[in-house]
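**User:** Once you have settled down, spend some time on the protein underneath, comparing sequence with structure tokens, and judge whether sequence predicts the tokens.
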Amino acid sequence: MSMRKTQVYLPAADLRALHGVARRTGRGMADLVREAVRTVWLRAEPEGPVALCRGVLRGTSSEHDAAFDEV
């Protein structure tokens, strides 16, 4: 996989916390940042029946009929 170097500015507290996670997990900071970017920002769009529900889920499965209530 070809990679290109970039810079990211983080608040000091976040940087310290990221260093701690890297130490505890034995992973590099760059690896943790790449994983976070892929997980949060580059995740694949849902397809199929899963795609019917996008956004924040509200309520419980026992309240599923409420989705069809008139507003």
Summary: The first helix runs from residue 12 to 25.
